[in-house]
Amino acid sequence: MTGGYEAVVYDLDGTLVRLNVDWAAVKTEVSRVLREAGRETTDADMWSVLATADDAGVRTAVDDIITEHELAGADTAARLPAADDIPRDVPVGVCSLNAEAACRRALAAHELADAVAVVAGRDTTPAMKPDPRALEWVTTELGVAPADTLFVGDSASDETTAERAGADFQWV
User: Fold this and answer.
1) Of 11, 21, 22, 146, which is the most buried if we count CB atoms within 10 A?
2) What is the band of 105 on the pLDDT scale with cuts at 50, 70, 90?
3) CA dist 168 to 13, 89, 108, 133, 163, Å?
4) DSSP string for 101-169
5) Residues with Cβ < 8 Å from 138, sequence gap 6 or more?
6) What class of enzyme is it (predicted)?
């Protein structure tokens, strides 16, 4: 897997584990908070809704709702096959749109925490994927350049993040 890379960074949800999150319940709760703030809810994805929440001054409340559900979902997350392929010969990181605490909880639940040196969730850095700064922060913490890193993920957003950061990408 490492193929000459100095580090490997993974997305979390859908790549190493599948968080057991009731996204319909999250959407209902988030919609209520946004309506109370005078904002219409849309069918936008949850990560786009964070920008709306930020504009409405309710980002913390919305993020807390999402994080609460992610933490609960981390406890019963399903381990995915890529988790069995984490290399032990290069530094490994996680760069996720999930909250850092949920990432750490899911990694610990599947005895993967010791294999991952750096974890960045949406609340770890000022920028979220697909902004390359999130992945760049992880590679800096790992002590490697993005160009020497393989980013493994399951979404077009992951691929875009890698491309923008100058890292190679591999679909899981």
Assistant:
1) 11
2) very high
3) 19, 18, 27, 15, 7
4) HHHHHHHHHTT-GGG-SEEE-TTTSS--TTSHHHHHHHHHHHT--GGGEEEEESSHHHHHHHHHHT-EE
5) 9, 93, 94, 95, 118, 120
6) hydrolase
pTM of the full predicted structure? 0.93
- CB contact at 8 A, 98 and 121: yes
Same structural domain for residues 122 and 52?
no
Could you tell me whether strands 92-95 and 78-79 are parallel, antiparallel, or unpaired per DSSP bridges? unpaired
Higher pLDDT, 106 or 3: 106
Q: Say how far apart CA 79 and CA 135 lie, in whole Å.
A: 23
99 plus 60 within the same structural domain: no
Residue 82 is part of a domain; what is its CATH number?
3.40.50.1000
- Tokens representing residue 4 in the block: 């000459």
| Pair (82, 147) in one structural domain | yes
